[in-house]
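To: structure subgroup
Subject: Chain for Friday's discussion

All,

I'm putting the inputs and outputs inline so they're searchable in the archive.
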Amino acid sequence: MRTRPVLVLVAVVLVMIGVGVYALLRPTGAPVGVTGPGPEETGRAYLASWQDGDLSEMGRMVVSPPADFTQRHLTFAQDLDIESLELVPDTLVRRDARSAELAFHGVRKVRNLGDWPFASTLRLVLREGRWRVLWLPETLHPALAGGGRIAFKEITSPVAEPVTSSGEPFPHDSGAENYRGLFGGEEEESTGYALEATAADGSRKELVAFPPPQAGKIRTSLSRPVQAAAARALDGVEQPAAIVAVRPRTGEVLAVADRLGKGNGGQNAFRGLYPPGSTFKVVTAAALLSEGLTPTTRVGCPQTYAPPRGRIFRNASGPPAEGTVTLTSAFALSCNTAFVEQAARLPSNGRGLVRTAELFGFNEEVPGLGGSCGRISPPGDVDELASDALGQGSVVASPLCMALVAAAVQNGSWHGPVLTPGRSPSAQSVAQRVSLPDTTVSALRAMMRAAVADGTAASGGLPPGTAGKTGTAQAEGGREHAWFIGYRGDLAFAVLVENGGAGSKGAVPVAARFLRAL
């Protein structure tokens, strides 16, 4: 019979057909003998178990998991105070027939702080006919690659953030950065945290920040446009310098641009004390006026002068004046010899100069500053009196102090500085108010106008309406300090350029840039 060979032949043909069909349907290069889920299903299942915290199930899906696999996950979550975890798979990428990568992203919730978003990659390999996870430390977070570490670090911010009077932030590079404590009356800081990664080479990278609650805003007396003008006026000044501006009728500080260096906590415009040079002649003139001199009183202005039993004093520059000049002209031209001669005639050996200086805030404690803004000592002899009258000797002052001197002339009353109206202890200084005699104020205003119109500040490019006084102060071991103080409208100011030379050359142009920017 031929039946059996025919059946065998048919069976062989069917097998060959089946093999051919399988060959057509099987993906090219796919390994034979794969059982269980594919790489994407395996990766998604692993992420689901991870999100549920099923570490045992995760371990079963990992190729040769490290002995501390479970402990690593527990320690990571405990050390970083992870409260919950959400994971979302992205698109699977097949590298070859036996490996694939499943990118994923997620969010860890850090207890009492907030969300920590991250992204990583799950590597999958085909081992022993099943798709498994190839686990590495960077699966937890990419920053752990190569022995990297993640830890908390503290970040701090002030409890209260000072802002300008309009509620806006201080201008960029304002020169007032070191005055935070004085403006805000707040030195305390609140604490937040950040998660920081440290790589094996020691480099650090902040992964996520949980800053402290936003600081409250403290409105200071600073005017944003005035502060910006002051800061920009100092741009390009090579020597250490500062500008302080105040509102004469209240004493409110409108600007402090301080680039005088790191001494006194970087607050030299308020706390630094410098010889004010001839800007102090405003005070000396006030003392002379209180003793009966007037703006039209004729005084001598020789190139040199020696008071009785005293040493010789000289004018800084220029030929001696012919004969006599008015007190106004002597002030405008900054005639040293005229002021030395007249000061030497003050009664009580110059005690009146000290009393007048104290009307302008010298030797007085300034609330919020922890000291006075200027000092003068009773002179011991005529030479000391003469030096003090020229803003040298025992006389020292801060730019703030000299801005308040100019403000007192403009307003007719000296006001203590106010930094945060109605809030900080320094606001109490608004009660520090000293009225000056009307006749003295009128005379000083005329003299300061003359200094700008016809005197040492005449060629400095100051805008119309400016009144002021230049100063060139001798400094130990260096070039003279350049000063200019003055006022224009409802704004008084002081400019100091440390070792800037003559006030007319070193300080007046800075003041002109400042005023023209307003």
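Points worth raising on Friday:
Residues 3-25 form the longest helix (23 residues).
The two ends are 120 Å apart (CA to CA).

D.
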